[in-house]
Amino acid sequence: MGLSRDVELLYSKRFLCSYSPMTTPADVEGIIEDYWHGKEPWFKSRGYQLHPRYKKGWVPSWVTNPPSWQPPTWNPPARGPYHAPVIDAIRIRDDKAVVLKRTFKHAVNGEETKLTAYFSSPSLRYDFNNHCIPLLDVMDIPDDENFAIIVVPLLRPFNSPRFDTVGECVDLFQQIFKGLQFIHHQQVAHRDCSGWNLMMDGTDMFPEGWHPIRPTRNREYTGHAKSDMMPQAIPMHGNDRTVPEFQSEDYQSRPLNPFPTDIYYLGNLIQTNFTEGGEYTGAKFCFDFMKPLVADMVQEDPAKRPTIDECVARLDEIVSSLSSWKLRSQVNR
């Protein structure tokens, strides 16, 4: 089975009002984006950064540095309904991509906020079968008694990227059935659980993010979204107890990509037995040529370690640079 998709149920069908590199400067001042454009400083003071296009005085790069050619279709991606109650942003403290949505506070129209908060309450949010989108924050809008801003994670369509195996589809079926069962057990009907309201947390698949309107593009719409389809697994301690990602008390509470851990094991084996020495072995002073590669392999951040293909390529370069005299020389202890 491929990488698991965490599916979320949404309560209403809304499109994002987001930026596009294919729009004219006048769009920023248009009725679609005026609401968000005027509140950019306030959102920043609350810890959320809108796209630079919403800053006062922003001028797009295609105006200051126009392209040498114009594509056949010079139109922005669809950015949502005319009044655009939704926009993407970045939570400043951890660079997390989020969605800001203007919602009603009161009466029947305010049910969405109440239900999202209810299913994010401590008594329900950690239930394994709760697939409702989590509520991250609620902000009262200055001088506005009717609306509030709710903050939820930025999600992507449940079928993007496409399914590769039957097992992935079966996993989806189980999640959506149990997710709907969960809210029905709380005496809540979804009333619109169609494809538009079935989204996926794609953070593990696309760690560098994606464009909110064109999920196949990267966050800044300058290229394709980079997918990390490496399998995830619950960490398992080996004999080497120095793995950096296994040092926290809750290291087994979340799945990790196991391949960088293998790189660390191999790098630390060479480091403790050959280049630096360890508790029971002394350093051997004739392997300095391996130190740069080993240092990269044992970096604390798993994402910064080279892949095994990069390790093999670098080792081949190292070996090809060694003289026959070096290869025949004695190991110095």
Automatic annotation (TrEMBL):
SUPFAM superfamilies the UniProt entry points to: Protein kinase-like (PK-like)
InterPro entries, alphabetized: Kinase-like_dom_sf
Name of the protein: Protein kinase domain-containing protein
Species in which this protein is naturally found: Gymnopilus junonius
